[in-house]
Amino acid sequence: MIVWINGTFSAGKTSTARELTGILPDSTLFDPEFIGDALRVLLPGKRLAEVSDYQDLPSWRRLVVDTAAAMLAELGGVLVVPMTLLRQEYRDEIFGGLAARRIPVRHVLLAPAETILRERIATREDPEVPAEEVDVRVRQWAYDHIPVYRQALGWLTADAHVVDNGALTPRQTAERIAEAVRTDAARVSAIVQSPEPTRETVASGVLLFDEQDRVLLVDPTYKAGWEFPGGVVEAGEAPACAGVREVAEELGLALDRTPGLLVVDWEPPQPPGFGGLRLLFDGGRLPEGAERRLRLPGPELRAWRFVTETEAAGLLPKHRYERLRWALRARERGRPLYLEAGIPTG
Q: Which of 61, 82, 200, 316 minimizes the number of CB atoms within 10 Å of its CB?
């Protein structure tokens, strides 16, 4: 199990985590900041210059998951992880990766009042950085993240067990967290457990349209970026039937016909991940009032929306957007297309 202690800078995560490892039996401190420090040494300067925060590095997010899994395999027990996560898509990616490895996560947010946060940054009364290492840049970095933290509070408070530690010592805060873990007040994250593939897969997506011909996208909780309704084709299952099944499971909509094929896209592997065939089908235009019947499975999808092709470019990862773009062209032309890595062949 992992107890992930979140909060903005100077919320008291590290000092609380140290105390918590002395309270929870068989617990070990795992600070992902050390992975960031290692990547600063290992990666070339040109790559590091492309990001403002090591959390923006896909390698950091992947290594956090892999290292946590390796530590739990080695040690068992509980990992206590003090790490700020203010971008929901990074939380999705990391917690989704842990869920895929069947590692339960209890997400805790330390949320002192903003006035207390600012006072701690100014005086370092609750330091997460040794006083001798604090300089103007570190303080300004912490101040700059308060608005980001404020914007993230909506999803953070909905996702995590909140502890207001403004008037608490690190020990008292740790005792509150330990009690919440013992009583299940800090519940295991409900994020879907989607096993990682061990070989190439076939996946079917279904494009659904509204009366303005906007396409329906969904926002998964377990990975970054928006997606099409759909999922992996199960053994012995016809791809079109898989798409129909996924639409019913994800959205509560029963399609009244087998959707027509729009594109077959061969997605090349991107180690350590696997590729495979990605199919998009035309589910047609939803009848009036169908939107009111949409029902999302909370642990798997958090939102849906109809978007134009232009709007989709800002929501979908590039390879998915290219797949959508050519699927829309295929729909206009009335014939399916074969793609490789999002590019039509022939």
A: 200
